[in-house]
Structures are given as C-alpha cells and as structure tokens.
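Objective 1b: paired records.
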Amino acid sequence: MPAPQKKLLFCTAGLLSLGCALGAAAAVGSQLWVRGSILCSTGALLVNASGPELHKFIGAIQYGLFSGQRVRQCGLGGRPLHFSFFPDLLRIIPASIHVSVILFCTVLIVFALVGAGFFMFNAFGSPYETLHGPVGLYLWSFISCSCGCLIMILFSSEVKIHHLSEKIANFKEGTFTFKTHSEQFANSFWTILVCSLVHFLNALLIRFAGFEFPFSKSEESGTITGAVDLMY
C-alpha cells in the first residue's frame, strides 16, 4: 500500500483510539451506567395498590461506578437520595468484581492512549520492528479490546447475577423492602462496547495497511527452514 494511504489509516486508527480513551474516561466518571425503577413492595402490599395507584410506589435509580442516585417513593411522594460506593456501599456490593471493573477501565484508558500515540508514531515517524511496529499495534489494540469485553462481562454479572440495583435500593432500609421493577444499561456501558468494537476495527485497519498478523511470518519461515533441513 502507498505511504500516504498508510498514513491516513494510521491517523484514523490513532484518532479512534484517542476518542475511545476520552470516551472511556468520561464513562468512568459518570452515573449513567444503569438506569431503572424500583418498586416499594412493602408499601404497595399494605394498601393493595394496583393499576394507576401502583405508580405512587415506583421510584427511580441510576448509578455508575462511584456514585449514584435513587428516588425513594412509598406513596407519600418521591425523596431523592444520593449515595457513594466508596465507602458507603462497600459492605453490601461484590467489592472484588466492582474494583476489578474500575481497574480494567483504567487499563483500557491507558492502553488506548498508548495505542493512539504509537499509531501516530507509525503514521509520521519511522516505525521500529519491535513493539513500536505492527506487532505492538496489534498488541495495544488486543489489550484494549479485551479489557472492554471484560468490563462488560464483569459489570453485567454484578448487576444481573448479584442484583446490584436491589442491594442499593435496600441499603439502610429497615421498614420498607424494594424490588427492581425495571433496569437497563445506560450510555456509559454502551460507550465501553463501542470502544471494544473500535479497537477491533483498528486491528483490521492495521491489516489493511499491509501488515501481516503477528507470528504469521515466523510460522512460514519455520516451515521453509524445516523443508531445507529435510533436503540436507
């Protein structure tokens, strides 16, 4: 492929990686990972609420990785309550999974920035045949894509399997019991999915630029060497 086209591909991949790093950083700090509604089941059972009356007992909840907000509604009007995961909810949530999600988010941001820098270096500089070259570009893209996938898997398991929304809704509730009425992943969660897809796309851009996948040349050379050895 001609050099100007390679530069264009590497610049595009670098800008995409930079955008992913900024998007992931914004996602980590936001409260838009999960949105949902919570039902005050105790209050609804006390008055046998149904139909339009049931809406008086449905509150709202939204949260991210560090903090969130819930609206506690038990028939007497909504009352917003702000909460923080650290240190308030650390005892009731699966702390190891939650910390792992934050850790992988940090790794995703760091390697996305590293990948953006090396993409630009390969576009405007003279790439080395080491980790600065095509093998390194594949490596940064693979690590970032893998971290994004792990973030989604771990956070999904935390929300769905460990019932994170219900644990948050019932935090320090002695009288009333809340149940999850509805919940869905919000913008920040899908931002991580987009970042994973973008890093997979970057790997394809490297391939289109004319670079072979890592270790493909070494396998071919090993096959040729083995044939030569058999001849002698």
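Objective 1b, second protein:
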Amino acid sequence: MLQALKSVRHLQSSAMKQAVSELCVPVPWGELRGKVWGPDHGRPVLCLHGWADNCGTFNTLIPLLPKALEWSKFSIIGHSMGGNVAGMFGALYPEMVDAVVLLDSYGFFPTDKKEMLKVMRQGMDQMVQFEKMTEDKKRRVYTYENAVERLMAANPILSERSVHILLERGLVQVEGGVAFTRDLRINLKNITRISLEQSLELQSGIQASVLVILAEDGFEKMFSEPEQKKVTSAILQAYRDRNHAVVTVPGDHHVHLNDPKAVAPLVSDFLQTKVLTQPARQTAERTSKL
C-alpha cells in the first residue's frame, strides 16, 4: 500500500476551497480517486466510504474535524462497507493503524455459516449473467433530475442536500444525459463472506483504538432479527471487552452526511485523545502524502 501511495499524483481543483485537492492513485485495473483535505504536514486520516457511495459522503463531516495531524501512522474513518474494510485492514496491518472510527459499521459483516454457500453461489451466478449483458444494458442514461429521483428512491434516508453532494462525483456526462459512475457490479450479491468466529478472530488482531458510532435508525434497526442481533451483539461486546468505545447517536445510516454535527464532536474528541495527544514519531514515511 505504501509503495502505491508513493506514486500518488495530486490534481488540484480550482473549484475547491479550504485546502482540498483531488487524489488519483494509478492501479493495474485503472485509477482510485479521492479527495485530500487539510495540510500536507499532518498525520493522515484515511476515510473509506460505503458500498454505493463515493468520497463526497464525507464532505459535510471533514470540515468539522481537527486536521493538524502529524505523520507517523494513519487513522481510518470508515462508513458502512468502508468500516468493514477498516476493521479488516486494522487486523491484518495493525502496525500501520493508530485509530479506527466505524460510522454505523461493526468493522466486520459476518454471514451465518448455513447461508454462506448459498449466498456465494448467488453472487457467482449474478456475476456470470452480468458479464453476458451488453454495455448498453449495463449503463443507463438519465437526465440529472431523473438521476436525483433514482438515488432518492434507492436510498430514501438521504436528505436532498446529501443526494446532490453524492451526485457531484456519482455522475458523468454522456451522450444524451448523465450516467452513474459506480461499477454496477456492486448491485450484485457480495461473495466475500466470513463467519462470526472468523470476524472475532480478526477483531482480536486490531491494536488500534476503536470508536464505534452506531445510528439509532441505522444498522442496529436494520439487523434487529434475533439471529442477526446475536451476531452484532457479540461483535460489539468484544469491542467493549477490549476497552474500545461503542456509542449510539440519533439518526439514520447516513447520519455522518445528513447531520454531521451529531457525529463530529465524538470523532474529534476521539482523535484528539487517541491520536493528537500521543507523541509523534518522526519516520521516513513523513515525506509520503495521502
């Protein structure tokens, strides 16, 4: 990962203010794009968005957080799927991560072992069918107004303002209108599955401080069936047993975007306590930029 980051090139956008620039990381299959907030001299906080979102999901939250961080390790703020990536990365590379913030995410998303084979097969079958589709069928063209309606229908918890924020990066101009930029394969069944036992084993490998922020009307409400609750409760209790923080705030799954002031004080206090008050270690990595 660090080697890839060394090849990062920044594309400054004249339309952006407050020391915000574009980020482009070349990878073998294309490019990873994102945004860089704050000064170059700080310790980075990597923000990972959710399954069907983009980095615009943090537009309203980031300006409310402290950004004078010093570079030695990095912290991760992950929402939804991004939180699962954060948990996995923190477990596999604990020496690289000093703090993890999970926004309406458990850090891992286990599947019942009895359901795992069926779910993985469904995903493989859907992928085969998707690859048989023509490009015209894969990409639909919308007017901007219809695209707004489409996203609001697919994700009704988003405020209208949040929808427009996500569509800033979520649409591309094409002949006849606009098209969604996300890879449509995200609509297929996810075949990457692990059990509760595997989740807990990975979780035990996280050395970073962890803050879990759950939304009252988010995943806690969505996964309220007894079997689902048993799994999520086990993961949350394991965080508490390791002296990590688990808090609940009013709001929905996108509370960090719809109502960032409900989340920002918790995240700011956590970063100030767990990151900024710790002695900064000067390393050769300081010259890298994220």
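Residues 1-17, 280-290 have pLDDT under 50 and may be disordered. The chain has eleven helices and ten strands.
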